[in-house]
Structures are given as C-alpha cells and as structure tokens.
C-alpha cells in the first residue's frame, strides 16, 4: 500500500495501538501531529487555486471578446450585403451621368444611357441568377453583380469616355 493512500495512516495507527510498546502514546501523538495540515502548505494551495481561477476567468473573458468580435463582423457583413445593391445603383447613376452632351440632346442621351445600363444590369443579374441556380454548393451568400463588368461594358459601347477623351471615345 502506498503512503499517499487515505487508508495508510489508519492502518499504521491501528498497528501501533495493538503493539505493546512503552512509547506507544508518544508515537500516536507524533502521528496525529504529522497528519495535521501544514498552514503554509494550505496557504500555498489556496493561492494556487486562486491563480488558476483567475487564469480561467481571463480565458473566459478572452473567448467572450472573440465571440463579440465575430458577432460584430457578422453584422458588418450582413449590412455590407444589404448595401451592395444600393452601391451598384449609385455606380450605375454615376456611369450614366458622366460625360453627357451639353445642349438640347442631353435628356435623350440620358434616357438612352439609362436604358442601356438597365439592360446590362438585368443581363448580369440573369447570368448571376443562372449561375446561382446551377451552383449546388451555395453557402448562402448574397448574389452580387459584377460591377467592374458593367462599367467595362458601358465603356465598350461608348457611354463613358476614357480619361482625357471626349464622348464615345472620340478625341
């Protein structure tokens, strides 16, 4: 039997009780005194437990902070997804109104550009929707049209001039 077993001191005391020794009472008193906990060891153990509790509390606080950060990031992504169509609409308006001809033809030119931009946007949305329908691994992201593709298409058909050029790519 190992000495750290809880039965060990009981067994030793019963052996000493049954022995016919002259210093039996002295041995029993010494053994009882040895079994009393050391106050310094108790304080040390309590300090260790306190330190461990504080460490666990700090870890819990860190995990809670990470969870809050993740929730904030998820909210930001949700808001960004809601704002994407509005940003696309703003870019569409900017592309349509850029480099308009001055004079009487301005309204007609604006209407023409608006129709072309709307048809390009609808085409891109249809392509994106078809791609989403065919994609079986979809993970719930909000479909977005290709904004650069729309701007590039607008430039190709001559609605927006390159920097330094006149309307329709004319110099």
Topology, element by element:
Layout lengths: L6 H12 L5 H12 L3 H59 L8 H29 L12 H10 L15
Helix pairs in contact: 1-2, 3-4, 3-5, 4-5
Features:
single chain; 171 residues; rod-shaped; 71% helix; mainly alpha
Task: Give your account of this protein's structure.
It is a single chain. The protein has about 170 residues and is mainly alpha-helical. Among the domains are: about 30 residues, no CATH class; about 35 residues, no CATH class. Helix content is about 70%, strand content about 0%. The chain has 5 helices and no strands. Helix 3 crosses helix 4. The chain is rod-shaped.
The number of helical segments is 5
How can the largest sheet be summarized? none
How much β-strand is present in the residues? under 5%
Compute the separation of the termini in Å. 102 Å
Number of strands: 0
Overall pLDDT confidence: 76
Q: List segments where confidence is low: pLDDT < 50 over at least 5 consecutive residues.
A: 136-141, 165-171
User: Helix/strand/pairing class, anyone?
Assistant: mainly alpha
Instruction: Label the overall shape.
Output: rod-shaped
Backbone CA Rg = 41 Å
Helix content, binned percent: over 70%
Along the chain, the helix and strand elements come as HHHHH
